[in-house]
Each structure stands twice: as C-alpha cells, then as structure tokens.
Amino acid sequence: MFEKIKPPEEGEKIRYEDGKLIVPDNPIIPYIEGDGIGRDVVPAALMVLDAAAEKIGKEIVWFEIYAGEKAYKLYGSYLPEDTLNAIREFRVALKGPLTTPVGGGYRSLNVTIRQVLDLYACVRPVYYLQGVPSPLKNPEKVDLVIFRETTEDVYAGIEWQKGSPEALKVIKFLEREFGIKVRRDSGIGLKPISEFATKRIVRLAIKYALENGRRVVTLVHKGNIMKYTEGAFREWGYEVAKEEFGDRVITEDELWNNYGGELPEGKILINDRIADNMFQQLLTRTAEYDVIVTPNLNGDYLSDMAAGLVGGLGIAPGSNIGDGMGVFEPVHGSAPKYAGQNKVNPTAEILSGALMFEYLGWKEGAELIKKAVEITIKSKIVTYDLHRHIGGTLVGTREFAKAVVENLQSL
Ligand code: NAP
Fold first, then answer.
1. Which residue has the CA at smallest separation from atom 46 of ligand 1?
2. From the CB of 122, is ligand 1 less than 6 Å away?
3. Phi and psi dihedrals of 141, rounded to 5?
C-alpha cells in the first residue's frame, strides 16, 4: 500500500471501532520531521516521549514518513500520497513544522493535511508552566483550550489571483447577477462557513468541556460584520448547545436571570464574544475564559496571541483532530533562520507529544512529561528564547531534552 516507505515490523496498529480508539501497548506511530527547525525539535521530542512511554510500561514504535523538503527529495512531491495513507492507516501521528512560502508557490502543506484528512479541529491548550517568563502579572490564570475549525473560512483555499480568468469571471458574475461592483484589479477569495462544520466543532468543544470538568465554552466570532458566515457560526453554536446538550448547558442570560450569576454545579456556561473584544478580554479578564471555539482565521490569530501570554511559541503545543484520527504538532512554524543549530526550544514539540499521550489515553504519561518540562524550566535550564528573559543555564535543543528526560526518569 506504500510506494517508498515500509512500516516497521514490530509494533501494532491503533484501531478505531464504534467511535473509540483502541490503543495497543506498543503502537506504531508515524512521524514527520518537517522543515527548518523540525530537524532539531522532533528528534528531541522523540527522546522525551520514548522515556515517558517506558516509564508507564509502553513502547512507541516510530515510523518516519515524509512531507516538505525531505519528501520533495525522495518523491518529487511535497506531500506524497504515502504520507497521507500512513496517517489514515495508523491514525495518530506526530509532526514537525512545515514551511509555506508567503504569496506564490505551493499551498500550505499544513492546511492541505488538515483538509484532506478532515482533521477539522485544531485543538490548542494554553496553560502556564511555572518559571516561564510572561508579560502578564498573573499568568497562572491562563488555562484555555482553543478549538479552531480548520476546514473552512477564508482558509478553504478558494481564491483566484488578480487578473486571472477565474477572478475576472467571478467579478463579472457578481456585477451581472447582483449589481455588486468589485475592482477589476482585485484578487478574490471566498469564505464558506457551513452549519455542518460549525455544529461538528462546537459539539466537540462542548463534549470536551463536559468530559474534562471545564466550566465555560465561548464562541468567538466576527458576526457583527460578517453576518451570514461568522454570525451564523454563533447562531449554529447556540443551536447545538441547546438541542444536544440542553440539560447541561446554560446561556449567559439564563445564568443571570435564573441563577443570580452563579454557575450551578454540573452545568457549563455557553457564551459568545466578538473577536476583537476577545483579544482584550483575554488580557484583562483572563480567568473568565476556559474553552474557546472559533472559525479558522480568528482561531489562528488567537492561538498565537494566547501562546504569547504564557511564554511564546517555543512552548505552545497543538493538535489536529478528526473523527478517530489525530496529528500532533507545535503551534510554531519552521523558523528557518535557526534550522539545524541545536538552538531552539523543543518544549512545544514535546508538549504536543504529551497531548498525543492524552489522546491515546496515556494520561499518566502526559502528566509525567508536563511535570518534567516544568521542573527543567523551573531549575532554569533553558534554551535561548527563555534565557533572554530569565537567564539561568543556557542549553541547546538536545541538551534541554536530555535534562527533561533525566527529570522524568527521577519522577
Ligand atoms: P515561526 O517559524 O513560528 O517563527 C517565528 C518566531 O517564533 C521565530 O523567529 C522565533 O522567535 C520564535 N520561535 C518559533 N519556534 C520557536 C522555538 N521552537 N523555540 C524558540 N522560539 C521559537 O513563524 P514564521 O517565521 O512566521 O514562519 C516560518 C515558516 O513556518 C513559514 O513558512 C510558515 O508558513 C511556517 N509555519 C508552519 C506551521 C506548521 O507547520 N504548523 C505553523 C506556523 C508557520 P525569535 O526570532 O524571536 O527568536
């Protein structure tokens, strides 16, 4: 079934049956090293994840698959079918960052992977690790999980270059059919947001909140301006909450009218905020936000901003989740200027691995990884990005990961 890669002979496949992942103790897990600093952070993360697996009596059998520049050299394609098939087949993968040139060139490989595999939710927890420098006075109040829809919105890839026959055709169509005038020298992009995809991600976020003892789910949208896309996102979000979780979810109006502002035990609050307001709310009323669910573009901006509140991109993990499938990757990109220098912080990649452990049901392992990272940073063994704020012992990517492994082994 694969053209140029061969799955390892040891290890077993993760299966998905009746809506549940069945995870063996020795799963085969594909990984993509990625471009730029991928070659630094991914091997460092594998080292920590192996140590954590061993500590809980498991073993990960890694299977390298290719995307980006490494894939181009091997296949003449940046995203070979082999890679997509391996993720489909083995269901859970770890990924390093991939470069996407701005403007021309190829479409984002990250966006393509999410769309082709229907990994519709980009789930990014944002929490504070003690000892990490933060611009906030009380960074420990940050404890968010952002659910960003990733198959639609202006990221759907429906766009045409200025002057292209397609762009001109759309411009003429708009004028002829609707009397809408668009400048001829415009590039054109479309923003589809569907009821199906909105309800699917809001459902996932509410389920997550209920299963993980979260208290608030906030729909973040720009519905005051884009009424039939972002505004509809808000409406459909409330509809799912009411129709499918009516006995567990209350709105802000109900909170104040029926419960005097006190959230009753066993219920979660669903509310909504307009995106621009949300950016300042996260800074000024940090503790009030918990689970955030939002269309693609808002979610992209919000995730980086939220990551900045608790130490920056070097430590922010992420995941792309579909039904019975997950690809785990840091929020940061390939930072090409640092590639191969054994310099950058592997924490984001390591903590993405911790998320992967949680997804596999290996919660104990995930906790060990998080604790070991925290102990390492608290003892001020840090890479350049944190060192420039808090000083301490400056180490490289590999050495940081080794220190995490040592701390993990002594837990
Ligand atoms: P970036 O690669 O995330 O890097 C931006 C800056 O963030 C770096 O210059 C560095 O800041 C800091 N940073 C990122 N990773 C770090 C780490 N592990 N440790 C410490 N600091 C880290 O963003 P970009 O420069 O905008 O994008 C580069 C390429 O990555 C682009 O082609 C973009 O499309 C792609 N990208 C890929 C993904 C993905 O694969 N999912 C995500 C985002 C971007 P300082 O310079 O201040 O040290």
1. 335
2. no
3. -75, -15
Q: Which residues make Cβ contacts (< 8 Å) with residue 224, sequence separation at least 6?
A: 231, 274
The Cα–Cα gap between 320 and 326 comes to: 6
Q: How far is the CA of 348 from the centre of ligand 1 (A)?
A: 11
Q: How far is the CA of 335 from the centre of ligand 1 (A)?
A: 4
Closest CA to ligand 1's atom 9: 335
* Residue 312: predicted pLDDT: 81
Residue 104 has pLDDT above 60, yes or no: no
The DSSP secondary-structure symbol of 55 reads: H
- Cβ–ligand 1 distance for 109 under 6 Å, the answer no
Closest to 153 (Cα-Cα) out of 204, 107, 222:
222
pLDDT digits (tens, 9 = 90+) for 134-163: 889 999 999 999 999 999 999 888 999 999
CA dist 385 and 346 (Å) reads 11
Strand runs labelled E in 150-214:
159-160, 188-189
Handedness of CA 134, 299, 269, 212 (dihedral sign): negative
pLDDT at 106 over 80: no
Global pTM reads 0.90
The rounded Å distance from CA 98 to ligand 1 centre is 10
The token duo for 241 is 């909450």
- What is the spatial distance between Cα 114 and Cα 100, in angstroms, rounded to a whole number? 14
What is the chain's mean pLDDT, rounded? 95
What tens digit of pLDDT does each residue of 72-85 get? Answer: 999 999 999 999 99
> Which residue in this structure is represented by tokens 């292209």?
164
Q: Is the pLDDT reported for residue 103 higher than 70?
A: no
**Residues identified as active-site:** 155, 222, 276, 300
The whole-number pLDDT of residue 115 equals: 85
State whether the Cα torsion 366-32-147-239 is positive or negative. negative
Cα 27 to Cα 14, 19, 33, 215, distances in angstroms: 6, 18, 18, 34
Question: Does residue 314 have its Cβ closer than 6 Å to ligand 1?
Answer: yes
Q: Which atom of ligand 1 is nearest to the CA of 98?
A: 40
Q: Is 375 in the pocket of ligand 1 (CB under 6 A)?
A: no
Find the length of the chain.
Answer: 411
Pocket test for ligand 1, best of 109, 110, 334, 389 (most atoms within 8 A of CB): 334
